[in-house]
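#structure-requests
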Amino acid sequence: MSKQLILITAPFNCGHCTKAMKELPPICEEKGWEFIEMKQERGSKDNLPVDLYPTIMVRVDEEIKDTLKGYNQNKILTELKKY
């Protein structure tokens, strides 16, 4: 089973994104998830459909299972336990 946690960070200095970048990689490693960071590019036409930073996507076997808006570590841990 392929399990990925995708963190979409802001194109500006975002405290919540910074905190997520620090805390999520070790959690993912411990739980057996691949951690992927995608930085939203300012003004790019290829922007992801994100309206709140950070946005965290839970992808299992190439399928997006859930999208969490904002950074809440407990919510993320609950989500990871489902798979």
